[in-house]
Amino acid sequence: MVRAGSLTDLITLERHDTASDSWQPLALVPTVWAEVTAQGDQQFEFRFRYRSDLVDLSATEPAMRIIHRGRVLELINVMESDDRTLLVLTGRGHRVEVGDLGSTARHTTIWP
User: Fold this and answer.
1) Rounded to 5 degrees, what angle do the CA atoms 76, 80, 83 make?
2) How far apart are CA 39 and CA 35, in angstroms?
3) What is the signed CA dihedral for 97, 69, 92, 30, rounded to 10 degrees?
4) What's the CA gap between 106 and 51, in Å, rounded?
5) 22-50, pLDDT tens digit by residue?
6) Which residues of 4-36 are buried (b: 16+ CB within 10 A; e: fewer)?
7) Do β-strands 9-17 and 31-40 pair in parallel, antiparallel, or remain unpaired?
8) Which of 11, 59, 70, 73 matches a 20 to 30 Å C-alpha distance to 36?
């Protein structure tokens, strides 16, 4: 069970709409309070109260993303607790390789 006091971060869940080729907030309560844990390498775990529309990865088709503190994270995993009181989503930031045209050096920046 998730204790209300640990749900300190507001996140927004968005689904990709292929017809309009745009991102739309989920129809049913798109913004939820979650407990957020950094996993390293731009990966985060989001724990929040159970909801029946997100029980596994197939429910996220064609694509979903998480907006957390202005950052866009790709949804890569969905886990449901045995007693159906908790959902855990794993999101990952995108890495974009950027070449420096003035030299042969390359560096990685986080998008967006």
Assistant:
1) 170
2) 13
3) -130
4) 43
5) 889 988 889 999 999 999 888 999 999 98
6) eeebeeebebbbeeeeeeeeeebeeeeebebbb
7) antiparallel
8) 59
* Reduced 3-state DSSP string for the chain: CCCHHHCCEEEEEEEEECCCCEEEECCCCCEEEEEEEEEECCEEEEEEECCCCCCCHHHHCCCEEEEECCEEEEEEEEEECCCCCEEEEEEECEEEEEECCCCCCEEEEEEC
Domain ranges of the chain: 4-111
For residue 89, pLDDT beyond 90:
yes
Full-model pTM? 0.76
Rounded Cα gap, residues 19 and 8, in angstroms: 34
Q: Across-strand partners of 89?
A: 46, 78
Q: How far apart are the first and last CA of the chain?
A: 33
